[in-house]
Amino acid sequence: MIEFKNVSKRYPNGFEALKNVNLTIDQGEFVAIIGLSGAGKSTLIRTINRMHDITGGELVVDGTDVMSLQGKELRRFRRKIGMIFQSFNLITRTTVIKNVLTAFVPELPWWRATFGIFKKEEKIKALEALDKVGILDKAFVRADQLSGGQQQRVALARTLAQNPQIILADEPVASLDPVTAKQVMDDFLRINRDMKITVLLNIHHVDLALQYATRVVGIRAGEIVYDGPAQEVDQKV
Ligand code: ADP
Ligand code: ADP
């Protein structure tokens, strides 16, 4: 599903954030990437949907050489991959359902978004996605009136409505309190198990990674230093 072959990433200033990374992730896995701040976790995640370009090696996702994609092909490829951020990235001054609708209707004309013109089946799909993460009752509430955990669930619903094969999450629970963080991790777990979606997330709480992920990848100074089952992680990673 996701295959890094000797991948390196050098930023324009010359800094090498990934060095010779070899990593294969299969369909349906739940993988947590752990490591200290600055280790390269975010860079690694963001190469998968080409938010960052790799500068060496090869990256193959779902049979496609990611670096070969351009324009329309790249946009279509990105639609298969859901992306979740620490900061939720919602349109805060609009309703929850509109956040979901504008995210998944491909190439939505601006006037449909502006005037709220959506088809019945689009609305049903959006409501189903909200139901899957337990916030159907918030559909018509403004996004900025929700708690952090609820906002992260809206972000999850947005990606679910686009039927992704993979969900990438860059520190999805870093700004949440411990109880809410666990609830959001429960959502990821349910999505992974019930919908067979591959989940790859960065997390700096090692204990949460160990509790939820089936596989943990430890990264230090751009190199993979651990890759294996959660139960056997060396706490020094
Ligand atoms: P975010 O993940 O919030 O979008 P960025 O992608 O801007 O943040 O940056 C990710 C990390 O890389 C941060 O720790 C940031 O300090 C660091 N960073 C960003 N740009 C540079 C740079 N030009 N030189 C060194 N470090 C950088
Ligand atoms: P992590 O997610 O593990 O905190 P990052 O992937 O954000 O680490 O960053 C890895 C390293 O690359 C850091 O040292 C960071 O400063 C550097 N970095 C991140 N973005 C940039 C950038 N745009 N330019 C230069 N260096 C960067």
Automatic annotation (TrEMBL):
Q: What is its EC number?
A: 3.6.3.28
Occurrences of domain ABC transporter (ranges):
2-237
InterPro entries membership: AAA+_ATPase, ABC_transporter-like_ATP-bd, ABC_transporter-like_CS, ABC_transpr_PhnC, MetN_ABC_transporter-like, P-loop_NTPase
Coiled coil regions, renumbered to chain: none
Q: Which Pfam families match?
A: ABC_tran
Top EC class, one word = hydrolase
| Name of the protein in question | Phosphonate ABC transporter, ATP-binding protein
